[in-house]
């Protein structure tokens, strides 16, 4: 860990004033089991963030929360736009929008079925809950890693008019404005309106252009309107409308050099598994110099570690818009309640991306996907007696992805042309589930859940064709016609029946202690490869992956509720792991990546979480969380290939995006400056071990090109609040130590390699007013 970061944090602690008044930790209420409960009373490892905590951390996007959760990572090989949660090492690093995540996001209980839906902004939020471990009972499919619940703040009937306005300005001319207002429109009805817009913030410069591009500007706007209607003392309805658009520029990748100047082989430094040096060149450098005769062009060594200078063309951007309707009915009887949730969503996703990360046009991709979904859930719950609680539910969903992707390979000498791929994927899923809790003794509770799922998935009219350089002269007139690799391919995958759920036992020796043990079965649906396929066999359905989780956990409130100590030991038996494999293709005379089932894996780990209020220091709260994870492929016959075609067995390799250790520390302090003003201070620190460790790869070349090293991030927030007014002003500092860190490292499969770097040090000034 960096001494500078530790020193700053230590200074923050040492400067805090002493006091004598004792404090107690607040109860955290969560909805992880689809009803309001104290987080200390449920047998689930959950990290919950209130609106106030999210504000302290300076997070404006859901994916930004991951760095504050030990054991959670975000995969987004393009830096922004398609974030995928990886919890306790369980995740599939796939950017294709037809694939489902392993840690599903539930936005106001509506299931987000694609990774492109994970980029929703955080505004006017009541709470975010990150559930760790399989959630196969209450949540079902595609929660083998966990679940992420996002709960927006609803209107409240009978409350006085309330709201807030929050504006900020920061480094690189980044600005953000957020506002919300709630008020009654009748004795039994209230509405709440919320909006947010983020602009500017471009921090990168492309070496492919002469100008200082200041690339990376945000252009994000979202609106939400909610109506709460209290029909009578037992029945209420909540209607929510969402609209948003995102035309932001996304991160520019940095080219990674690996070739000798004449492309006769790999440069020695990279071949040995190390970092590239001045003897290493990219494919674009070689083509520019020897084929086009224009010199090497921008070199990889001209880039900086912070990611501000990149070799990419400045074309990366989004053009997204979405709209959704969510209607919730709630009926409360004396011993039984009923809930109905209906959701309809349309999401249009567009992204341009320079995959070769160079000044040439070797692999420029333009993606467009039209996603739509409709779902219905019914839920009944109640108590048979004081000792027995039950829940029954049923759900149905219909999802469709219409995907288009264009490739521009104009300057790729051996494979020039334009490629076009399109398909439609339809998914229908139905499920019935139940949960039962039985307090059969004063200190013992037995609980279990069971879900039956039926799912059908169809891939329709898959087409992949090329024009220009790879077209065909069908008429003998010298005019090249489109050449079809695949045309009109249809595939289907049927999950005829599948059971998931859990069985567990809780022991509560006192009101302040919970010890639980449980076994859980979860699964992630099978599906189809959504990339560029050269044969129908590549489009065959891959199987669902199964996971058995065994967890022993504890939750305690000690020292008169001034110390909270929670933790868990977990073991995963993971079968038919989904992932990417490589195979040699004679079509491109190189290695291609395809999606399939790798084999079996084992994940073993332990996590702990401390929250402490020192009795001798008034207003101070210290939080610490840590996770240890050993995740490896335990059984597999799959043979991997590195970019040079060197074979290696994947059995025994560590899984990627599964750091062995991860740590998070947060200090919060409140102190009076004088009788008129209060200073609220927050310091947060996170550290990850190697994200993609050396032992996750079978060759030195893979380690050099795809490894991601450890990193740490330090953030601060200082807020001044008047004691007799409703406004406050804050200064936020992000990445205080200016850490250089990598978010992703990947290949375009055609000879170019790249990495995406995280943002360097930044600051933000924020003003807010509440009423």
TrEMBL record:
Keywords: Cell outer membrane, Ion transport, Iron, Iron transport, Membrane, Receptor, Signal, TonB box, Transmembrane, Transmembrane beta strand, Transport. Its main location: membrane. It is found in: Cell outer membrane. GO terms for biological process: iron ion transport. Residues 40-147 form the TonB-dependent receptor plug domain. Residues 292-735 form the TonB-dependent receptor-like beta-barrel domain. PROSITE patterns: TONB_DEPENDENT_REC_3 (PS52016). Gene3D superfamilies: TonB-dependent receptor, beta-barrel domain. InterPro entries: Beta-barrel_TonB (IPR000531), Beta-barrel_TonB_sf (IPR036942), Plug_dom (IPR012910), TonB-dep_rcpt-like (IPR039426). It is a multi-pass membrane protein. Transmembrane segments: none annotated. Belongs to the TonB-dependent receptor family. This is Iron complex outermembrane receptor protein.
């Amino acid at each position: 860990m960096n001494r500078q970061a530790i020193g700053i944090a230590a200074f923050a602690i040492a400067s805090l004033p002493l006091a004598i008044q004792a404090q107690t930790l607040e109860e955290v209420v969560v909805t992880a089991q689809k009803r309001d409960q104290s987080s200390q009373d449920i047998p689930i490892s959950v990290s919950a963030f209130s609106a106030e905590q999210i504000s302290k951390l300076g997070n404006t996007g859901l994916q930004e929360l991951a760095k504050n959760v030990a054991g959670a990572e975000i995969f987004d090989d393009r830096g922004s736009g398609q974030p995928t949660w990886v919890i306790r090492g369980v995740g599939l690093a796939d950017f294709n929008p037809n694939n489902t995540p392993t840690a599903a996001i539930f936005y106001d209980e509506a299931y987000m079925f694609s990774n492109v839906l994970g980029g929703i902004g955080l505004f006017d939020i009541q709470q975010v809950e990150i559930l760790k471990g399989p959630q196969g009972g209450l949540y079902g499919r595609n929660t083998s890693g966990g679940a992420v619940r996002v709960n927006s703040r609803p209107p409240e009937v009978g409350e006085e008019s309330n709201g807030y306005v929050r504006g900020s300005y920061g480094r690189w001319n980044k600005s953000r404005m957020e506002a919300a207002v709630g008020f009654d429109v009748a004795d039994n009805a209230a509405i709440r309106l919320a909006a947010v817009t983020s602009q500017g913030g471009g921090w990168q410069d492309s070496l492919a252009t002469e100008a200082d591009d200041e690339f990376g500007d945000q252009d994000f706007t979202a609106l939400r309107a909610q109506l709460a209607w209290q029909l009578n003392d037992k029945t209420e309805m909540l209607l929510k409308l969402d609209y948003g658009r995102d035309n932001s520029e996304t991160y520019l990748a940095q080219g990674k050099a690996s070739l000798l100047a004449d492309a006769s082989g790999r440069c020695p430094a990279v071949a040995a598994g190390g970092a590239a040096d001045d003897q290493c060149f990219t494919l674009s450098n070689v083509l520019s110099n020897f084929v086009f005769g224009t010199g090497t062009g921008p070199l990889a060594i001209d880039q900086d570690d912070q990611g501000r200078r990149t070799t990419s063309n400045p074309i990366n951007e989004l053009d997204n818009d979405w709209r959704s309707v969510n209607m919730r009915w709630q009926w409360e009887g004396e011993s039984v309640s009923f809930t109905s949730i209906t959701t309809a969503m349309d999401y249009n996703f567009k992204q341009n991306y320079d995959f070769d990360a160079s000044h040439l046009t070797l692999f420029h991709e333009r993606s467009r996907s039209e996603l739509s979904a409709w779902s219905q859930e019914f839920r009944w719950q109640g108590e048979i007696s004081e000792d027995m609680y039950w829940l029954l539910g049923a759900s149905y969903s219909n999802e469709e992805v219409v995907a288009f992707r264009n490739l521009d390979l104009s300057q790729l000498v051996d494979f020039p042309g334009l490629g076009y791929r399109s398909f439609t994927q339809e998914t229908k899923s139905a499920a019935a589930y139940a949960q039962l809790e039985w307090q059969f003794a004063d200190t013992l509770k037995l609980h279990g859940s069971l879900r039956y799922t039926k799912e059908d998935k169809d891939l329709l009219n898959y087409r992949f064709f090329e024009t220009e350089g790879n077209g065909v002269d069908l008429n003998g007139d010298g005019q090249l016609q489109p050449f079809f690799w695949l045309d009109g391919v249809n595939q289907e995958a049927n999950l005829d029946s599948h059971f998931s759920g859990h069985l567990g036992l809780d022991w509560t020796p006192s009101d302040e202690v919970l010890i639980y043990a449980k076994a859980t079965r979860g699964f992630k649906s099978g599906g189809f490869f959504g990339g560029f396929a050269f044969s129908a066999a590549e489009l065959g359905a891959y199987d669902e992956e199964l996971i058995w989780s065994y967890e022993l956990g504890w939750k305690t409130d000690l020292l008169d509720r001034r110390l909270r100590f929670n933790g868990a030991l977990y073991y995963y038996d993971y079968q038919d792991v989904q992932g990417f494999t490589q195979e040699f293709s004679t079509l491109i005379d190189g290695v291609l990546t395809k999606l399939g089932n790798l084999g079996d894996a084992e994940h073993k780990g332990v996590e702990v979480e401390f929250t402490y209020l020192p009795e001798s220091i008034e207003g101070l709260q210290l939080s610490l969380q840590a996770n240890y994870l050993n995740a490896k492929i335990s059984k597999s016959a799959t043979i991997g290939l590195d970019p040079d075609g060197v074979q290696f067995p994947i059995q025994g390799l560590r899984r990627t995006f599964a750091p062995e250790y991860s740590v998070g520390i947060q200090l919060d302090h409140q102190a009076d400056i004088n009788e008129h003003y209060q200073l609220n201070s927050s310091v947060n620190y996170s550290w990850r071990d190697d994200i993609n460790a050396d032992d996750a790869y079978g060759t030195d070349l893979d380690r050099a090109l795809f490894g991601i090293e450890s990193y740490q991030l330090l953030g601060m927030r200082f807020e001044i609040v008047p004691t007799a007014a409703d406004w406050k002003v804050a200064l936020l500092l992000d990445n205080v130590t200016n850490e250089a860190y990598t978010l992703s490292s990947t290949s375009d499969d055609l000879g170019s390699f790249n990495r995406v770097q995280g943002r360097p040090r930044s600051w933000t000034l924020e003003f807010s007013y509440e009423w």
